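Hey, sorry to bother you again with one of my protein questions. There's a protein on my desk that I can't quite get my head around. No rush at all, and the record is pasted right below.
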Amino acid sequence: MSNNLLQVINTQSLIKLRLAVLANPAIIELNFDDLVDKLSLNLVTSTYEFDDSIALQMPVGFSQAENKDAINCSLMLQALPSLSPANATDDRLWVTLSFGHYSEYVQKRWPFRISEENKLTNHVVNHWFAKGPRGRMRDNGVSRLWWMGYIASKVPEMDMDSVFELLFANSDYRSSLLERTGSSNALSVLVAVLKISNEFFTKGVAYEREKFREFMRQVNFLGGRRNLAAISHSDLVDLFRPLYNQAYRI
């Protein structure tokens, strides 16, 4: 194990790097040290412990069995052993790792096609940068792994592999879960939705996109009237169960 305090680019350099990518997305292929020199980026020592001996597994395809997301979530938790959710909102951390230590992984997990040059800038900005909760949880090539691992580790009475089955089996389910403001801003709400989903899936109630989205709309509507973050996940499960029944017309 080689735990050190990670050096990350500072905020000014993050802005400079983003502007450089907007002008020329292909610079993601540069070695990180060369990128630092080319753009005169500045690094500062963070308080984040990082085990640089942890290597992510390279994807060999895009199916759940091939993309290695689940195992890489566990590896990211090991690589950043003392990271808190508050510190995990630091865009500098994820951008540095995406362009630096895990650049090869991000390029293989999120390959870009020169033939789709008109979409290239958005593709790189989404997966190499980490703007806002949605960007960190859903899009950034590295931060999404840590956040999914962290969430999975907090679901009681479910092992992490079972949670990963829920999170990664269906990208639309994951997007509906994470893109809603009410759910993505409160861990207890995420945990409760995962628990209620698993409860109904186990009963043979299959995921249906529009019905689940209706359920999440009702959860967020409820969140506008009550402080869901202040309610325990077990009480939230009881609160959400009738909403799930109603959405699925059970």
